[in-house]
Model the fold of this input.
Amino acid sequence: MTIQSSLDYQTKFFTDFAKAWADHSTFRLYQGIDTTAENLRLELSDAPGYILAYDKSAQRELAEFLAGDLIKFLREHIPFFEVTDDGRVFFGDWYHRREFGQLSVFARTINQVTPEQQVILPQLEAFAADPDNYLDHQVDALQKKLYQEVNRLHAKLESAQAEPVAAPQPSSGNTLRGLFKNFIDPGDDTEDAAPSTAQPQVPTNTAALQSQFAAAKAEADAQFDTQKRELQVSAAITRYEYAAVMNTYSSVEQFENVLANLPTDFMHALDAKGGRANA
Done:
């Protein structure tokens, strides 16, 4: 491409983009953003900055205009989503509803940036795989995690308690006295025949292990009770979300495909209106 042809291309592009803005054509504005991102190998979110000479105020104005049609489309396209005017997407309208993500206007996607948002789809997938045992699996995994140290200490304590304790050995003085006694009076062994009264010795580390085990178990019990209740609440919310998905789509996978195809479906919807003003 020559210098002149390059300048001619840019002149035409910016003329077309300016005309799309003047006509309030959402479709053609997005076309300009997509073309710029593709030609310059930019992220879609960065393309408006290039077009508008990195004017932050102009970029905000463009985003606010484009958001109107995108929000309207999303509310109709995924009916169980609650979308605020500033682009926050919530899953449902019930109590304890979760924030699903934030609309990225230029990319036409829903961004999930927080850990709470990023676990929603995996939880829906896990619930769909085994709805009846979803909570039980989570509680079992929690119990295994929290009681790992408790079980280790318990095994160590049992091992210590089972260690054999050596019987006390007679002193050398007692042995010599027994030899002399048997030599003098072999028949008189009443004293030496008396049963031993020595008590078994408890390993010295058992008491410490018992204390560690009791403390670890008390802490694990407290954490388990608290986190189990949290899992129960979370599972109830996931059940509501799953029901909403299944009332609209055939599976969680289909719902995920709808999310993945959101930019394409939105552009098709705009194109179906002929790309006219306010379309």
About this structure: The two ends are 33 Å apart (CA to CA). The chain has a mean pLDDT of 87.
